[in-house]
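Q: Protein A?
A:
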Amino acid sequence: MGRFARVFMLTGIFFILVTIVGCNNSAENNNMSGYSTIMETNDNDNEEMMMGKYPFPNKVTEKGSGEITIHTPAGTSEDGKTPVFFVDGDDRRIQIGIDAEDFDGSRQSFVFVDKTYVRPEQFVDRKDTSIGLQGSMLKPGIHTISFIQFEEDDPINGKVTSYTEAKYAVERKDRK
């Protein structure tokens, strides 16, 4: 099977899984009055994202053995590449796949896009996930997806134990 077909199939599978399973956000302690939380609702599937719930750590550098690879219809982020995909005014949400390797399965991985918290992930029995990009995540330009693990799963006071990132780029489609 060709590489493009595999990536396209993975993206489709991730989209179906997210649609069926939904977000696995758990109830969290709400003593975070100093941090802004933005609830974004996708009208198509009533899914809510808790964006900005946790701050992005200051002066963090890549560390740990965890690695992520972004999969888009336009390619992957393998070998430091930045896959580019095109959007138009009708695109409200685009699903991209992510392979995660060598993360500590006993800890949550906190997912950030452009330094804004999106949701937690945990890689125990699986090594892949997907993210529904929407809003500012689909603006033209280069964007960064970061996976961060903290001591004791504490993104407020815990020390960063693993940090890795990958980039994707968004461009506007020309309508003629």
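Q: Protein B?
A:
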Amino acid sequence: MYRLYGARRCLATSAESQARQSQFNVFDRRAKLVQRSRIAQLNPQLSRKKEYLRDEVALKTIERLAFITRDFTKVLDFGSHSGNLLKNLTIKTEIPVGADYAETEITKQLNNDKLVIQDKIKQLYMLDSSKELLYRDIDEPFNKQFKGEVIRCVGDEESFNHTCLEQSDQYDAVISNLSLHWINDLPGTLANINRILKPDGLFMGTLFGGDTLYELRTSLQLAEMERKGGISPRVSPLVNVNDIGTLLNRAGFSMLTIDAEDVVVGGFPDIVSVCEDLQAMGEQNAVLSRANTLPRDVLLAANEIYKSLHGETDDKGVTTLPVTFNIIFMIGWKKSDSQPQPLARGSGQVSLKDVL
């Protein structure tokens, strides 16, 4: 009887542990790894061509990094993809043809910021779960233009299973661009990022917010409701900007800065072209409960709904489809005794009533 009770207790404990672990499992990480690696391996040129969004976000990250005046001797690019941050740091941005004075000066300032940031970074660790994507551009010229040392590490971003993630308090800054939205246990991952940062270390990240692909999402839902009488999870669930502050605070970050920006990409001729771009980016659906196929009649109906609700018609009567990407930018600092501390409650000497 004792052995039987002990066995039952062990089984119950194991079941509880699995239940706690599975509560975070929304995405199929194995499928996502295959999706991200396939195009990079089979068609590198197409993979590079479809990285316009990651390149744009990398530039916006560089602009934000330029406002931080400290040095970053050791930096981790967490979920680095093929190295969009490294590439955009080293490649000069050309002044657009026909640019006005303001646009010209902004581009000059951006190029100057790139040089300043490069001088701050002595070691850049690039971590990504996809070996094919991480090493895709290793022979590209921009790698030799970087002044510091580059170390590429293949490891899972969620399980923190690489040696470069073992030691606590080691990185001056961790930067993550458009990678965290595929993490199941986002609170745990943010806590681990906080752990490996030095005290007063910087975390700067971006991820897709809840309004991303809302045109595609609504069109597919309406089409499937009409044709099938129900809906399937065709687009992955995403974090809302209102939740980011809570997540960062729970992970131990302080002095938070959070904002969001919509990047709209237009000119798609049909919904198939939209899906093909997402597939080439490795950003197609990876929800565990996803449907395996999209029926042709649902796709055709979704295309017409997309055009009628969100289509943009030019002077020639040609209708194209826009795609909205909601980008959440977040900055947090690991807590340190050297950081400015708030005064004790009730210690103020001036009344707001007198000021206002």
